[in-house]
Amino acid sequence: MQSYRDLANTTVDQKKFLDECIFIVKEQSFYMKQALENGSLRDTLKHASNMLCELRTSQLSPKYYYELYMLIFNELQHLDTFISDKKKHKKRFIDIYESVQHAGNIIPRLYLLIIVGRNYIKNKDIKAKYILKDMTELCKGIQHPLRGLFLRYFLIQMCKDRIPDTGSEYEEAGGGNIDDAFEFLLSNFYESIKLWSRMSDKVAIKLAPGQDEQVLHNNRNKVLREKMDVKMLVGSNLVRMSQLEGMTKQYYIDKCLPKLLHNLSTINDSLIQQYIFESIVQVFSDECHIYTLDILLNAILKINSSLDFKSILITLLKRLRSFIESNNYEVPKEVDIFSLFYEHLVLYVNRTLDSYDGGKGTYSLAVQQEGQRFPMEHYKGGEEEKKRGVLTFGATTVSTNVVTTNNAPITGSHQINTNDLLPNCKIVKSADAKSHPGEEKRTMKEGAYYGGATHQGSSNKAANYGSLPRGVHRRYSNDEKNQRNDHGGEDGEDDEAVENVVKMLQVIYEFIFLCIRIYDDVTTITKLFELPYTIASNVNLNNDVLCEQIINIIVLPFNYLGLSALKGKNMHGLLASITAQKHKKKLSLDIIDAIIECKNKAIVYKDVEEILNYISPIFNEDVKRKTDAADEPHRKDCHQREVNEADFFNLDNSTITYAAKKMCKFFHIITNTNDIDERYNICMLFYKHIENGPYLVHLLPTMVFTMLNLVTTITNLVPTTAKKSQLQRDEPFEKKEDADEDVHDEHTHDDHTHDEHSYDDLVLLRNSRGDSTTHMDLFPGDHAEEDPYLENKLKQYNLYVKNILKFIHTNLLSVSSEIPMLALKLFLHSAVVVNNYDRFIQAHDFLSFENLEAICYEFITQPLIIYEEDINISSQQYSCIIWITGILCSHITLLQNENYENIALKLTQHANKLLKKKDQCLGILACSHIYWENKKYRNSAKVLDCLQKCIKNAEIAVQSNNDNIILFLFLLQKYVYYYEAENIEVTEDSVQYLLHICQEEYSRDNCDPNFKQEFLQIVKYIHDKKQSSNAFAKIGLDIAV
After folding, report:
1. How far is it, in rounded angstroms, from Cα 970 to Cα 829?
2. Where is the region Disordered (predicted)?
3. What distance in Å separates the CA atoms of residue 541 and residue 579, rounded to the nearest whole number?
């Protein structure tokens, strides 16, 4: 047999060789089964041994060797069944156990030994722990990596239910205990990882010295892939360990994990160590990980500097988050997850930045812990700090005093042992880190952004970082970062270094995600952003992959905290670190999405102002591009090429319409507050950001409805009837449905006035009726005069309304040509709100609003102008007439009679000019209600004029198309309606005339069924009215009908 990987067999050669092995296996299996039927144990073992000899090959890759192994494994189950039945072979197990050890080849010998030993344990002739130990020692005879791994995998498979676990039958028989079961699995695990680690060594020895470098590289990669193909064989040991009944939390902490880590530390192979760590995290329970976080994290940190700790931490953090979510976000009080992870993440961040910068970093990310649950406070200067020693390792500073938390002290394993520090650790005094020579001044704002960059108490100076040692990373200013980013492509970033940073950011993302799910305190959660800010300050964010991870981290807190995420330390610095336009656009839209989905809808004007200042560039993005194109025409070709290139962020959906939908939802959220001052100021602030951009047309309807709702809210404010002394203590206004409910809004911002009072003095009344008399009764005129503050407040609200109406009028005029139908409806809705607001003005003598009737008139005439200039489609024109008619009839009472009649006349004229006679008839029929429904403007003669015009148009329409006969049916319905309403101009003769026309149509053979049904309903209605009252007594009906 040739040694492992001697021959560079192709896939075809290995497949051919495998087929030959399978043929032999099937042949020997056939003879073995014949011997089993004959009851011949000797022949059975002989053919089984011949079959197992095929596993001695070294010419198969792990993939094909596993296929061969599984075929033989299935055939050996027949042998196992035969040996387990003592009645068939009539031999003692001790004799069989000794006889199989005389097999000529070691591979068949050990496989047969394991099968017999498994049944020997089951028979309980000897203690299980002795047989297991014996088989484990004998398996050491196979030192070939691939064959040895499969042999030990076979041992675990066959004996996994024969170990003396807690509560098993083999423990009760005195065969051992949980310690023996664990030692058996641990021994096999240790031997397996030793064999596994030697697989790559065999490659290095066998490679020819004169091979081409590329061939050498390809061969090594191939073998490394094959090496990872067998990881399941090793991981099976850990899986079985985790399934032990005796593997309690305490046993795992005291014995299992320490021994696993000790064995793992003897293997100097980062791939193996990483897989084992990930397996430990995945297979053992979450409760075990919660109580051994410090041990596990310290082991990951110290065991191998080349270990890919990031994948391990990501897996661990996800497991912990799932566990916490499944347990209602409860964490054991004695475990401080934040502190344990944060101390190690600081080290990992600096290690990652060292690899990214090539060891030339110049900024210190420091952590101070002084009796606080969470680190990351600014380092304060003082005499106490000068006396207290601080450990500075890499870029982390940890107090040498005992660290305590709010719940319990962090002692013992929770502390970082000074003997385990990295080689570049040193002990310094606080004063040493307090200041540096060559400091230069920094503004207060920059100091807030830079957070922990300087630890110098009240001093606002930045250190001269030129002489800082390796492992200390500087936060660059925006100008310096832009210079680094501009030259980043020239220097050529190391892909591996970028990948490391990306993974580190993924770890931080999971850490922040975990902490958000655990801690409810906004202030606590927002301390988490020092880590990503440090990375963002030291890497090239023009790299799309890096920038995407930073964006994910920035957006995450907005999903759970909403606008409160802006309170986070260094959050503003993180936002400012994203400078590229496409990245900034993606971030802005993602933040909007997150705020929309967030359940925490707390709205504060300051937070809204900050987030709008950041995302404002997307409001005017297209305008800027047009300006740039006008200034520099030669950029157009370059821009077109950029558009055609594949965009990493895939923003194809981010068209103006798509983005506008998100912004409308976002606007509804940021204005979702009961504070009138705050809502008004937010609306005006939002408008300032969009007024010159391409989104105005899309967002204006949303803004108009929100502002009109604000006016309605002010209109529905109703003062209570309490006495003056009571006003000073209680609510001066009451809410009809929730009189005992208080509204608490702590922050109010007014661009014009800033009162010391809050809106807690006002609550809302949602009045369900539109009767002006009811409103007037609820407003005692002299009540507000008793309180000067309330009077000033209402005057301020009155000013808001004036500004809102001016805003609506100006902006709707500017967009009416682009959205005529929508602008028309918004004008009409505004007219209704203005009409209702007049009741509020009349209820308070100290309020004045000049020309309110003229404003209402303007809001109604503008739709008519839009109708004339911008609406040309006949169906839309008819809809507009119906809309305006409905508004005038149902809601408008403010207009003077002359103005009202002018509008009604103009509307009737437009209806009479519609394209189709049918539409003319129906339009004028609708306009007849303008002169009747509103008692203030009722005119019976005008109603009759409209009805007569309708009859003329109906007669003309029927002449062109007999299907229009249904118009007479509609006219009959209206005549009956006005006749019943006692319109003196509508006589019985008119009703009788229409009844006669409709009856003639009804009598025709080919009359439309729908016409017949409608006519019968009218006739039945008139008949019922004739019997119940004298109103229709003079109207005759055909008895036959």
Report:
1. 29
2. 450-495, 723-758
3. 8
Distance CA 354, CA 362 (A): 10
How many other β-carbons are positioned within 10 Å of the β-carbon of residue 652? 8
Given a cut of 70, whether residue 539 has pLDDT beyond it is yes
Q: Three-state SS for 393? A: strand
Poorest-pLDDT segment among 150-159, 287-296, 410-419, 878-887: 410-419
CA dihedral angle for residue 815, residue 816, residue 819, residue 823, rounded to 10 degrees? 110
The Cα 539–Cα 534 span in angstroms is 9
Extended beta strands in 250-393, E state:
389-393
Distance CA 740, CA 938 (A): 43
DSSP state of 254: I
Q: Tally Cβ neighbours within 10 Å of residue 151.
A: 24
- Rounded Cα–Cα distance for residues 519 and 511 (Å): 12
What token pair was written down for 403? 């660290």
Q: Which of 243-257, 576-590, 937-951 bottoms out in mean pLDDT, i.e. has the lowest?
A: 576-590
Contact predicate 570/550, CB 8 Å? no
The two structure tokens encoding residue 405? 């938390």
Residue 823: closest CA among 878, 871, 856:
871
Distance of CA 444 to the CA centre of its chain: 33
385's tokens = 């700090």
237 CB-near residues (< 8 Å, 6+ apart): 156, 185, 186, 188, 189, 192
Three-state SS for 179? helix
HEC string of 730-798 equals CCCECCCCCCCCCCCCCCCCCCCCCCCCCHHHCCCCCCCCCCHHHHHHHCCCCCHHHCHHHHHHHHHHH
Query: Could you give the 3-state DSSP secondary structure of residue 392?
Result: strand
Which residue stretches of 210-368 are H helix?
213-229, 231-242, 249-251, 257-265, 270-283, 286-291, 293-303, 309-326, 337-357
Sorted by where each begins, the domain ranges of the chain are: 1-196, 362-475
Residue 393 β-bridge partners: 396
- Which token pair is 738? 């929730």
> Whole-angstrom Cα distance, residue 529 to residue 223?
42
pTM here is 0.68
Query: Which residue from 302, 151, 309, 149 is spatially nearest to 235, judged by alpha carbons?
Result: 149
CA 945, chain centre distance (Å): 63
What strands, in cross-sheet order, belong to the sheet with 426-429?
A: 396-399, 389-393, 426-429
Give CA–CA dist 484/500, Å, rounded.
Answer: 19
Length of the chain: 1041
Q: Which two tokens mark 641?
A: 């090429």
Task: Express each pLDDT in 659-686 by its tens digit.
Answer: 888 899 999 999 999 999 999 999 999 9
Which of 172, 80, 88, 68 has the alpha carbon at shortest distance from 117?
Answer: 80
